[in-house]
Design brief:
Helix content is about 80%, strand content about 0%. It is mainly alpha-helical. It has one domain. The termini are close together.
């Protein structure tokens, strides 16, 4: 059973996933932005795995 915290983290993870997809589809993706989005996504994933 998911808690509200887990649901919120999962939702944030999905948003970051979409943002990464949008950025990579741009003609000239911003590498710095992509790196930061991926770091945030990884942090959320790690936090979800610890729960």
């Amino acid at each position: 059973m998911q808690t509200a915290h887990q649901s919120a983290l999962t939702a944030k993870h999905a948003v970051l996933d979409r943002q990464i997809a949008v950025e990579t589809q741009r003609p000239l993706p911003d590498a710095v932005t992509l790196a930061e989005l991926k770091k945030q996504k990884l942090r959320l994933k790690q936090e979800l795995m610890q729960i």
